[in-house]
Amino acid sequence: MEPHKPKPPVPPGTFYLQPLYYRYPFDLHRPLHNFPYTSSSRKLGSHDVERVQCTTNMDNHGIARVARTARTEEQQQQDLEKIRKYRQLDDAIREKTCRDAYDDPALFPLTSKLLRLNPEYYTIWNVRRRCLTSGLLSRPLAGSSPSRASPSTSPSTSTNPSSDASSSSSSAVIPPNPASPTTGRSGTTADAESASADADADVLRSELTFTVPLLLEFPKCYWIWKYRKWILEQAILRLPRPVASNVWEAELALASKMLVKDRRNFHAWGYRRYLVARLESADLLGRSLVEHEFAYTTKMIKGDLSNFSAWHNRGRLMIRVLNERRADGGARTTFLDTELNLVQDALNVGPEDQSLWYYHRYLISQVIGSEGNATITPNLTGGQKMSYLKQEVEFIRDLLQDFPDIKWPYEALVNYTLALRKLQPGAGGEGQEGDPKFWLSKLRKLDAMQTGRWNDVERDIERQLVGST
Question: Please, are residues 360 and 347 in contact by the beta-carbon 8 Å criterion?
Answer without folding.
Answer: yes
